[in-house]
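Suppose you are handed only two things: the residues of a chain and a line of SMILES describing pyridoxal-5'-phosphate. What would the bound structure be? This form records exactly that question and the answer produced for it, so the two can be stored side by side and reused later without any lookup.

QUESTION INPUTS
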Amino acid sequence: MTKNRPIPFVDLVTPHIELQDELVAAFKTAIRTAAFIGGPAVEGFEREFAEYCGAQHCVGVSSGTDALRFALTGAGVQPGDIVLTVPHTFIATTEAISQAGARPDFVDVDARTYTMDPLKLRQYMETKCELDSRTGRYVHRTLGKPVTAVIPVHLYGQTADMDPILELADRFGLVVIEDACQAHGAEYFSKKENRWRKAGSMGHAAAFSFYPGKNLGACGEGGAITTNDEKVARSSKMLRDHGQSRKYHHEIEGYNGRLDAIQAGILSVKLRHLTEWNRRRQDAARRYDDMLSSFEEVIAPCQPEWSRSVYHLYVIRVQDREGLQKYLTEAHIHTGIHYPVALHLQHAYAHLGYKQGDFPVSEKAASEILSLPMYPQLEPTDQTRVIQTILEFLSQSANLRESTETLSLRSV
Ligand SMILES: Cc1ncc(COP(=O)(O)O)c(C=O)c1O
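ANSWER OUTPUT
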């Protein structure tokens, strides 16, 4: 019976049941005041989340995608610019670049951390771009467009290696927008500053998603921009609200991209639990790490000394990913793939002209990664069952290989 009990990939029900009374109280407050758009709940959450991230400003918006788009435009990215990011991320990162009128382009990820490889960023800027002495900007040699921003993605709950990225951005005049949509509370040790820094406090601005499955998730859609730049905060506030600086005074054309007050109230409740939830994810990750340490066939996530990951996802790597996923599904263990096709190979980006082999690290990762069940309430006994099932699969595959080898030896 226990053997067949499903282990979900993520459990969104338990935390909502645990917090039901507090969440309903937040909803009741909105009903009683009818402050559904803006107002004290939104402003209160913005203050709390800015403080949590160690940033001076937070602007609540309607999604992580809008947060990226508003941050890019608010930080000065112009239509026609090139914005660099990685091919190994969710498509929202590049959608936001296109929506801001810019053209996405890619640098590959590091093979161990799956985040932007600073060396590849340097190579891109040094070999593909040149300084336009007229504008003082770096321009792509063949595309003839200025490269003005870079979006390092803090993937799976782990930040990118920010010191060298920030240094390169400084050298080449790039705006840095952190995609922190999967990294609420993740930390990076900056050698340059000799201190731990939170995701969302390091770039010119950062974007967070509060999609329900995130480490901090709304009961619906939501997102936020954090920044230490007052100008970016002001522009983002205008962009989310039809470009108005005050009611019916429109400085620019904007969007309807606000965070609503019910979601803000709910996020304030959940924010109080985020540190504990992240700690439980880290404990669960440590248990997986320990159990996997003796398997050569499985590559566990790598957490460099400069990182404190909050394990939005726990992503392993195996050669026969499809086989293992099928085996786990048959054992009622649910997994995910984040993401199966690198962005430069997606149909949506065929116009960029990339082909198989252009970003080999991302492509190989896309074919081998598998996200195991991960959530704060994950039981250690369930984790043991996950690992035992992986072990079973690996030993069956090894036996099969051995008997195939024996058979082919015999037939020689
Ligand atoms: C890396 C990354 N960027 C951006 C987004 C977009 O966030 P949203 O779904 O809130 O628009 C997500 C959400 O899944 C994401 O994982």
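WHAT STANDS OUT: The first helix runs from residue 13 to 18. Residues 190 and 196 are 6 Å apart (CA to CA).
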